[in-house]
């Protein structure tokens, strides 16, 4: 729009980005201005605006495991929160402290795979419940943060820097525990 007039009807409006690039010295004075640049996007690359996080399409995320189909709005079976919490208790105490002695070997691998499966099942359920909340509610923002953390944990791999496989499993357990709490709060089921 220029001078308050609408663009011509024969020209389609396209999404784009406008950016102004300038240099500032240490006192905050603009020392160089490269002007404003508009970057239009082709119509086929426009991403729809949604409230949920889009699934990541990078090679690292695609190689982790097959994602749960979140396009379906119906659930075939109710989520078994009790079983999920039991899996969490195999690694964490009620106060969040780690279970000692920690599981190891095949038991740890089984727990890690189970935690991953629980997260992949619970993430779409919590997303669906979050979609019904007011966009400005604090419960919505908190749940979205926990969803983002859960996705991050699913992409992570065990590293020696963060206590190896047991540390990785505990991080998955904490993410699952948080999503269980959100699911119970948002669905109205008892804790």
**Radius of gyration of CA atoms, rounded to a whole number:** 23 Å
Large-scale geometry: extended
The number of helical runs is: 5
- Helix and strand string, N-terminal first? EEHHHHH
Helix content: 40-55%
Major sheet: arrangement of strands: 1-2
Mean pLDDT: 76
Low-confidence stretches: 64-75
Pairing-aware structural class of the strands and helices?
mainly alpha
Q: Span between N and C termini? A: 54 Å
Query: What percentage of the residues does DSSP assign to strands (E)?
Result: 5-15%
Counted beta strands: 2
Largest sheet: 2 strands, antiparallel
Provide a descriptive summary of the structure in words:
There is one protein chain. This protein has 191 residues and is mainly alpha-helical. Helices cover 42% and strands 10% of the residues. The chain contains five helices and two strands; from the N terminus they run ββααααα. It has a two-stranded antiparallel sheet with strand order 1-2. Helix 2 (81-89) packs antiparallel against helix 5 (164-187), helix 3 runs antiparallel to helix 4 (138-155) and helix 4 packs antiparallel against helix 5 (164-187). The longest helix is centred in the middle third of the chain and has 26 residues, at 105-130. 18% of the residues are buried.
